[in-house]
């Protein structure tokens, strides 16, 4: 790391020094607060006022007083500042505790935002420790902000997102609300909450937690399944976000993983707890995004290194010329339809040579190592393809993200709920190596090779008829593609004499660089290989089938 301070520019930074860590935290806090005010246009309000020597501050959005729905954020722990979920700095991943991604999502979702500051209860004034008026304790701070900055406003749907020990503080605060104030509470999203229900809690509080709250926590249970033991302890439904392993085993990983699910819950809780839980489960990740950034290879300079990415039965490779280098940079992104938490993605780095490509090593990544709804960029050591314990020739930098793609989800729902195979298709024998490889996913018609295409939304095989019939939402007519050509694949053939004579002079086909449309959805070009021939269809991002 580098030191992020005015007096230490360019010097090495050590996480072992407590002084260095504290200095870095102060710099991070200043940067976060600057972004809150400059990028998110939040307003800083001082308690008790801006002229007091002993004071603390909260942050509010410009429309918080008039917005019909409000989202209140509470950070946990002593020493925490507004805009931070944690103070942890990891040696490899750095600081991951910023609230800014949550705040951006809240503002984009139409919420007014209030960030509390219950952890700041005193200041040093003239060398003495002075308590802050109206914020001498966390409970006093929350109560004061609620009565003076929340209750008088127009919001009739007030939601909370809290993390860790802030759950204890929120539970205590909720128990003090009047009946009318309880009715204004929308939804409560706990993340790894530390609170517990007790026999002394009122029935009104228990009902509120049961009907309006959900907790997310890391667990070995499958994703979005209810954890019975935690539900009994917390008094609200507790959902697993899946198992954690390796560097992902930290609370910041959980916070970022449930961001989408937390806001889906808050937006759907008005329909009831069961409907909101169903909505959460509908956000199950269904697309893996892999970016092959670069590699640091060992040995002698290589002819033309490239990477092959394999997942979900698909194989894609990087393109471009990187001749005579040991530090190739590709920066190419691929996406795969992945819904199973047991799936794996394999990245093989090879050197392009004739007549055979040379393997430099591979990386096998399980979905438990992939960040949910957030990009995780890091280096992976290459391993020998045949002997996993043996080192390969260097390392590769990857950016991995497992996300929920609405297009894919809608297509899945349409296919499952509205398309049934015809009687003729059901009675027709299926000859293929695997399910879905030899017939159209929609009409179940057996493929003739010329009619095989890939759906641009659900990533499945479809026939020409279905491809022409369906079209991208927003267009009034189908958008026809150019008929895909047949091109032989000679790049992976060991002996060129085995290639038909008419194709021996044709160059190997490189997979095209994938593109990204204006909405941020990834659109890859797909290839299908059968009997040594490649059929490739290049898609326009503005077209569907």
How would you summarize this macromolecular structure in one to three sentences?
With 545 residues, this protein is α+β, with helices and mostly antiparallel strands.
Q: Layout of SSEs?
A:
Elements: H1 18-38, E1 43-47, E2 56-60, E3 69-74, E4 89-90, E5 94-95, H2 100-108, E6 112-115, E7 122-125, E8 128-131, H3 138-150, E9 157-163, H4 166-174, H5 179-183, E10 185-191, H6 203-212, E11 213-217, H7 228-234, E12 237-240, H8 251-257, H9 259-268, H10 273-281, E13 287-297, E14 305-311, E15 314-317, E16 329-337, E17 344-351, E18 358-366, E19 376-383, E20 391-403, H11 406-418, H12 423-427, E21 453-454, E22 461-462, H13 464-469, E23 486-488, E24 515-516, E25 522-523, E26 526-530, E27 533-537
Parallel strand pairs: 3-6, 3-9, 9-10, 10-11, 11-12
Antiparallel strand pairs: 1-2, 2-6, 4-5, 7-8, 13-16, 13-20, 14-15, 14-17, 17-18, 19-20, 21-22, 23-27, 24-25, 26-27
Helix pairs in contact: 9-10
Describe this entry's structure for a reader.
The protein has 545 residues and is an alpha+beta fold. The protein folds into three domains: 43-281, Rossmann fold (3-Layer(aba) Sandwich), CATH 3.40.50; 287-403, Immunoglobulin-like (Sandwich), CATH 2.60.40; 406-537, no CATH class. The chain contains 13 helices and 27 strands. The chain has helices spanning 18-38, 100-108, 138-150, 166-174, 179-183, 203-212, 228-234, 251-257, 259-268, 273-281, 406-418, 423-427, 464-469; strands at 43-47, 56-60, 69-74, 89-90, 94-95, 112-115, 122-125, 128-131, 157-163, 185-191, 213-217, 237-240, 287-297, 305-311, 314-317, 329-337, 344-351, 358-366, 376-383, 391-403, 453-454, 461-462, 486-488, 515-516, 522-523, 526-530, 533-537. An eight-stranded mixed β-sheet has the order 1-2-6-3-9-10-11-12, sandwiched between helices. Helix 7 (228-234) links the parallel strand 11 and strand 12. It is globular. Residues 269-380 form the C2 domain.
């Amino acid at each position: 790391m580098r030191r992020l301070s005015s007096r230490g520019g360019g010097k090495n930074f050590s996480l072992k020094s407590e002084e260095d860590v504290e200095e870095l935290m102060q710099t991070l806090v200043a940067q976060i607060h600057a972004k809150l005010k400059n990028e998110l246009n939040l307003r800083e309000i001082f308690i008790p006022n801006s002229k007091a020597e002993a004071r603390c501050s909260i942050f509010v959005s410009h429309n918080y007083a008039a917005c019909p729905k409000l989202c209140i954020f509470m950070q946990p722990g002593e020493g925490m500042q507004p805009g931070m979920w944690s103070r942890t700095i990891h040696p490899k991943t750095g600081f991951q505790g910023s609230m800014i991604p949550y705040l951006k999502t809240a503002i984009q979702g139409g919420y007014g935002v209030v960030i509390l500051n219950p952890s700041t209860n005193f200041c040093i004034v003239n060398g003495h420790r002075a308590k802050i008026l109206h914020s001498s304790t966390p409970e006093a701070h929350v109560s004061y902000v609620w009565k003076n900055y929340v209750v008088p406003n127009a919001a009739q749907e007030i939601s909370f997102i809290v993390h860790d020990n802030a759950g204890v503080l929120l539970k205590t605060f909720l128990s003090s609300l009047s009946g009318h104030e309880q009715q204004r509470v929308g939804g409560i999203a706990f993340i790894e909450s530390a609170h517990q229900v007790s026999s002394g809690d009122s029935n009104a509080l228990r009902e509120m937690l049961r009907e309006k709250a959900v907790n997310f926590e890391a667990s070995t249970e499958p994703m979005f399944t209810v954890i019975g033991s935690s539900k009994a302890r917390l008094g609200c439904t507790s959902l697993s976000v899946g198992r954690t392993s390796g560097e992902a085993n930290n609370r910041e990983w959980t916070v970022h993983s449930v961001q989408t699910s937390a806001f889906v819950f808050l937006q759907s809780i008005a329909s009831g707890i069961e409907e909101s839980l169903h909505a959460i489960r509908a956000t199950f990740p269904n697309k893996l995004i892999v970016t092959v950034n670069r590699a640091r290879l060992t040995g002698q300079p290589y002819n033309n290194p490239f990477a092959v990415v394999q997942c979900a039965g698909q194989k894609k490779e990087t393109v471009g010329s990187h001749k005579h280098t040991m530090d190739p940079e590709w920066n190419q992104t691929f996406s795969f339809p992945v819904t199973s938490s047991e799936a794996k993605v394999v990245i093989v780095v090879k050197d392009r040579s004739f007549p055979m490509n040379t393997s430099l090593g591979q990386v096998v990544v399980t979905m438990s190592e992939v960040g949910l709804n957030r990009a995780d960029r890091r280096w992976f050591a290459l391993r020998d393809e045949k002997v996993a314990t043996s080192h390969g020739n260097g390392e590769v930098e990857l950016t991995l993200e497992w996300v929920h793609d609405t297009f894919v989800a809608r297509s899945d729902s349409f296919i499952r709920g509205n398309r049934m195979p015809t009687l003729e298709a059901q009675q027709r024998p299926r000859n293929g190596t695997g399910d879905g490889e030899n017939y159209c996913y929609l009409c179940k018609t057996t493929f003739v090779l010329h009619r095989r295409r890939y759906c641009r939304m659900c990533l499945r095989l479809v026939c020409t008829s279905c491809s022409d019939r369906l079209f991208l939402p927003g267009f009034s007519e189908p958008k026809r593609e150019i008929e895909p050509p047949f091109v032989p694949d000679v790049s992976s053939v060991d002996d060129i004499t085995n290639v038909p004579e008419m194709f021996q002079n044709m160059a190997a086909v490189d997979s095209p660089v994938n593109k990204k449309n204006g909405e941020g959805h990834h659109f890859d070009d797909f290839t299908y290989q059968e009997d040594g021939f490649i059929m490739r269809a290049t898609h326009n991002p503005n077209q569907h089938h």
